[in-house]
Amino acid sequence: MSSRSESLMKKPEIQKNVNLASLNSMGVEAVAGEFIEIRDHRELAALYENHFFSRYSPLVLGGGSNMLLIDNPLQPVIKISIPGVHFDKEPDSSDTVLMRAGAGENWHQLVHSAVELGYGGIENLALIPGTAGAAPIQNIGAYGVELEEVFVSLTALNTETGEFEIFEKDDCKFAYRDSVFKRELKGKRIITEIKLRLTTSAHRLETGYSALSNYLEEKGIKKPATRDIFDAVVSIRQSKLPDPKDIGNAGSFFKNPIVDSETYTRLLKENPGIPSYEMGGGERKIPAAWLIDQAGWKGKQVGNVGTFKNQALVLVNMGGATGREIYDHAMRIRDSVKSAFGVDLQPEVNIIGQSV
Q1: Are 182 and 67 in contact (CB under 8 A)?
Q2: What CATH code is carried by the domain that includes residue 174?
Q3: Each residue of 186-207: pLDDT tens digit?
Q4: Range of the domain at 22
């Protein structure tokens, strides 16, 4: 599962006292005492050779879109900006193509590029903020599609050995918004490249989500192409989600809870018409946004923090909010939903701080 790092090293620049406000989509003020931007995997190899990872456990940033900084990070911060996108036809297949992307590539731009070339498989994942390298960590998903469905492999630096390892799909232990990189390998691997398998024809289009099917019906699109799905997802997300450039947010703050059949039966009895999605094995996924809305939080503002008026699942920085303020607001919502429905909400974003 591994390959040796190259002997040719590139020593990266270490910057001092860098404000991270523009590097996290919540727009939270935080200062990194040491900051390193990585544009080439050899720079990571150079850090290992200089015993950087044996001395520090750095905070690794991608697009900064799925995190909440509670404090100034005490450890050095590494931002992964490795570029590069390649599409390679598979020799044994006439209807698939492999996409290789550097971990620093913007995820939405990758999806757009694939759609423009007529490739399918990730069109439902349009407009998800973040980078290619962060996508498998979170096993990103939207509108009935998850990354693991098209995932082939990734390359990551083992910070304990200095080797660049190849992780196949099964190695990643994907689950709902989860992977091995959020659990036992958290902080021990740094992703440098991902590889996905996309279709060139006979695309399997996912239109099951009501918002998506309703959009296509309204547009009179009966036989959608990948571009139609992409346009629909972009339109829907733009109508529901604020642009981080305009108002700080980390997208969906909580995971959609998955409940067992007994809990679902109780919820349905107490709340006729509660929306849900079958997950198999008797389990059902309940939209966290619905629970938060019903608990009275949609559009509500407390101090410098609010819950977005168009999407209850999105917490927003109304201006000048600290990470602690946002975290406290999230915990009030969590406790309120627990009290009203007996359902636990788990954060989807990574909470980073010494005082949590």
Answers
A1: no
A2: 3.30.465.10
A3: 999 999 999 999 999 989 999 9
A4: 2-80
